[in-house]
């Protein structure tokens, strides 16, 4: 990554305020200060809660050994974060747009200058992927600053005389105004990128944020926040607040809080209960997926095989946009399976620091779940095509499971691991049934050389995005990104997030007499 010499401070000094000198745990951010959690008795779980005031997460690649400790924020901490954010937003909304954009550019530059500790905190991700996530995120912040300048400086003007029976005596000026405080909740798999994809659009639009990072990924989120906090020096201090703790403990309190004026959430089915908790505020929900890859007989099989391996096994299958089902015509199934196997067998399995292609999945619970799906499929007649099933602790060897049928859980459930099921279909109708009977509708991809068929099939797919002749992907990050059905509500992508995090305001000028431009 090209670093910008935007400050002379070394990483250790830059991130030093985050650490508690007594126990080395990471503090949380409120009102521009790095703090320790308040007394445990204030915890949302109740005064009788005996939990410690720090949470320790695990390193999946080191037998789930303790990785980092950080604050278990209490209800009081959450209340204060919202209160400070609200105060900061009032001032920030009156800050010129170009100053807001400049602050975001500074944050991006600081992320590039101090990227290494952030990448290192992504302990489960291969070194190259961790570095790429930080670089991609800094680019997103820059892009949001630029997009905000364009999107937020334009408004609308309506004349009343378009409405039957009305003269041109009213002018309606339409502008976008901030919502207030945006609650940002990213998932463990992209704790930096999916944090900034919420924070940057919110901030450029004049909002303040309260961020709740995932437990696995909390420290990467906190270090990223320090780049924003430093970039915002001199601005209202409570613009970015980060409260940490387990979602199961503070999640409901955060999402049902009166202080949240918008919730932007990315994660699994938890999002459905978050949507129920939200109090009449705009919500942006990016949830799970079961992205299908449909390969027709006329497809370029080498292209399709490469996409299946990239789509199915990148970051060990722990992407919402991973290929999680594959329907292929029985006419070409054997040839395609063979090509995929050849590529899967070249994937390396091991440690993140060695840049292995496949690394340990996030938790033992997740590995157990994946194993359960595979066991179920194999017991009902499916076939593991890439050697025998192999798992050591959280590490799962990449597995292609062929001849999956609709009585198997693997056909419908999201593994979130390096396992790709193959469903053989006889025709387009059957392939479409597998796509559309899924409760998810995030993305899907179609491989064919027939453009008519690609468009026809893509139009019929009930998914937020269709990729033609390419694997599912959220990026580049300015593309609209949305799930249908249980995969989400609303749309991400920088422009759409800015839209979601603003509301429309009309100011109507009532003239004493109609006025027609050039009508004098
Ligand atoms: N569509 C998309 O854009 C994406 C979807 N995903 C989906 O996310 C899932 C994997 O991510 P994962 O992090 O495990 O998802 P989870 O839904 O378990 O967690 C997501 C976030 O929600 C928090 N959380 C947990 N409980 C609550 C609660 N009651 N209220 C509010 N927040 C809560 C978590 O905190 P904590 O970690 O402390 O529990 C975490 O920060 C997969 O299903 C995947 O498909 C992932 C990436 C992108
Ligand atoms: O969380 C995810 O899975 C990300 O949205 C993946 O992003 P990508 O599809 O651009 O890799």
Automatic annotation (TrEMBL):
Residue span of region Disordered: 41-62
UniProt keyword annotation of Cytoplasm present: no
Residues at the active site: 286
SUPFAM superfamilies hit by this protein: ALDH-like
Aldehyde dehydrogenase domain span: 55-506
GO MF terms, alphabetically ordered: glyceraldehyde-3-phosphate dehydrogenase (NADP+) (non-phosphorylating) activity; lactaldehyde dehydrogenase (NAD+) activity
Bias kind Polar residues: ranges: 50-62
Broad EC category: oxidoreductase
The protein's name in its UniProt record: NADP-dependent glyceraldehyde-3-phosphate dehydrogenase
Reaction equation(s) it catalyzes: D-glyceraldehyde 3-phosphate + NADP(+) + H2O = (2R)-3-phosphoglycerate + NADPH + 2 H(+)
One Pfam family per UniProt: Aldedh
Alphabetically ordered keywords of this record: Oxidoreductase
EC number: 1.2.1.9
Entry superkingdom: Eukaryota
InterPro entries, sorted: Ald_DH/histidinol_DH (IPR016161), Ald_DH_C (IPR016163), Ald_DH_CS_CYS (IPR016160), Ald_DH_CS_GLU (IPR029510), Ald_DH_N (IPR016162), Aldehyde_DH_dom (IPR015590), ALDH-related_metabolic_enz (IPR051020)
